[in-house]
Amino acid sequence: IRQWHSAVVIQAAYKGMKARQHLREKHKAAIIIQSTYRMHRQYCFYQKLQWATKIIQEKYRANKKKQKVLQHNELKETCVQASFQDMSMQKQIQEQHQAAIIIQKHCKAFKIRKHYLHLRATVVSIQRRYRKLTAGRTQAVICIQSYYRGFKVRRDIQNMHRAATLIQSFYRMHRAKV
């Protein structure tokens, strides 16, 4: 009986260890899946930004080329003195326009960055809250699972003891008859 009881205890400990190992592997797999998904999401966002940047650059270059063509056509049509005055005026306007574009670009970039940082801070805050919430729930689930498994193992052991007692009493009765 002692050997049998020892075997049951060892088997219960081994099964508990295997169950905890399996649970740890599931947690690791879930973490890998989550991090891979976040990485994929960030990569998609990066690709969209890259695509938008290329389009803006192409439009800017096309507009610049168009302005050069228009300037060239204007120079052809006017005489040297008028073209010189126009050219200096165009240069001044273009410099003012470039200055305005740079100011607008910096303002827009500042607004976008500010909005992005606000959204990022909000997302980080939500993620922290969610992780705290799920960490507590995960601990509660693990605790409940361990209590349930312990209860189940104790019940199985009791059932095995009862079966062993019945077998012993049956064996004694059988020996007494013989």
From TrEMBL:
Q: Which UniProt keywords apply?
A: Repeat
Coiled-coil region(s): none
Keyword Repeat in annotation: yes
Under the heading InterPro entries, the entry gives: CellDiv_DevSignal_Domain, IQ_motif_EF-hand-BS, P-loop_NTPase
Top-rank taxon: Eukaryota
**A Pfam family of this chain:** IQ
Q: What is this protein called?
A: Abnormal spindle-like microcephaly-associated protein
